[in-house]
Design a protein that fits this description.
With about 350 residues, the protein is α/β, with parallel strands linked by helices. The protein contains 14 helices and twelve strands.
């Protein structure tokens, strides 16, 4: 008999979120083959400002055997202050206590944009209750656990697992030849204010554009927001809009296999690079990119916009990635030493999310 699983996440907006959601489902399906999935875009609840009564009625009227939440950076405060739950997730104590099925929070990220950190006391209370009343709860390994500790909300119930965007059952063979096809993977927001804050000003953005042009880099967008500044996009905007439908996720992510190296700005650009075994540099305009690099051995492949010499670092590290086999081979070694461990951690967490318990 099929089990009805609701799966809450951000669908059809961003390749990174889509691949995280897809990889969660794949592993659940590997372990529990009788699942019938129901995609619930989190926007259903955001459109109601996470109205508590609406959410309770929704799950009362739609009976599920389990609710899976994630992956994705779904734990966020700024911009969601006016929601009834006081933050991005559509859960608080009242909602969690009203649910009649298990809830599995899988590889979520706590999203901080620089200059927009922090949670209100009300938001912290909602998150604390969500963790307490969940069946299983995990955060991705990008520094989110450290943020939870800073908020004073960490308990042993919270497990750290790899972001689902790292988990693939295929990858690119190690490249022993010349790196010819190289891409830059940008990260822009709808708000120009956020863009300028992330990049410390318009002049830095222009310097990055000049670097991409000078090095003849193609541009790999994850979302329509990325069609700013850069040129030579490998997918035009209309085609990307169509390919961002969740059912095309597997096809879209395989575009990465056409390339030899990546300079990734987005967290999921970084994770896809590593998951698919494509050497990369990781350009931090958000702490989650930096912290993943530092926490997982890739610090020599990270460049932070806050470094005064970021431009010279980018030039030298990009040259080394393309031309220095020792530098490249160390990247492969770090990746290979982690990938099996990450998959086992991910698999074991899903195994704990047994609806038979």
């Amino acid at each position: 008999m099929k089990k009805k699983f609701a799966h809450i996440g951000s669908y059809h907006r961003n390749l990174g979120d889509n691949i995280a959601l897809l990889n969660v489902r794949k592993e659940f399906n590997n372990q529990y083959p009788n699942i019938e999935w129901y995609s619930l875009d989190i926007g259903i609840f955001w459109n109601k400002r996470n109205n508590i009564q609406f959410i309770k009625e929704f799950f009362k009227q739609n009976s599920f055997d389990a609710i899976v939440i994630g992956g994705g950076g779904l734990i966020e405060y700024k911009g969601y202050e006016q929601h009834d739950t006081n933050y991005k997730l559509p859960f608080n104590e009242e909602i969690m206590l009203s649910l009649e099925c298990p809830t599995y929070f899988v590889g979520l990220g706590i999203n901080y944009f620089r200059g927009r950190e922090g949670f209100s006391n009300e938001a912290k209370k909602s998150l604390e209750s969500t963790i307490k009343h969940s069946t299983c709860f995990s955060l991705r390994n990008d520094g989110s656990i450290d943020i939870l500790k800073d908020l004073g909300l960490y308990t042993n119930k919270v497990k750290e697992i790899p972001d689902p965007g790292l988990i693939f059952n295929y990858s690119k063979n190690k490249n022993l030849n010349q790196f010819k096809e190289n891409i830059i993977q940008p990260a822009f927001n709808s708000s120009q204010h956020i863009n300028e804050h992330r990049f410390n000003g318009e002049s830095n953005i222009q310097s990055l554009v000049n670097f991409a042009n000078d090095n003849k880099l193609s541009t790999m967008p994850h979302t329509p927001k990325d069609y700013k500044y850069f040129s030579n996009y490998v997918i035009d905007q209309n085609n990307l809009q169509e390919m961002l439908k969740f059912e095309y996720t597997s096809e879209l992510v395989k575009v990465y296999l056409n390339f030899d190296s990546i300079i990734a700005f987005r967290g999921h650009g970084q994770l896809i690079s590593i998951g698919l075994n494509i050497p990369g540099l990781y350009f931090s305009t958000q702490d989650k990119v930096k912290h993943f690099s530092l926490n997982n051995g890739f610090e020599e492949y990270n460049i932070d916009i806050n470094d005064k010499d970021w431009n010279s670092q980018l030039l030298s590290k990009h040259f080394r990635l393309l031309m220095d086999s020792t530098y490249r081979n160390k990247w492969y070694e770090i990746r290979d030493n982690n990938i099996s461990k990450w998959y086992l951690e991910f698999k074991n967490f899903i195994n704990k999310c047994s609806y038979n318990e």
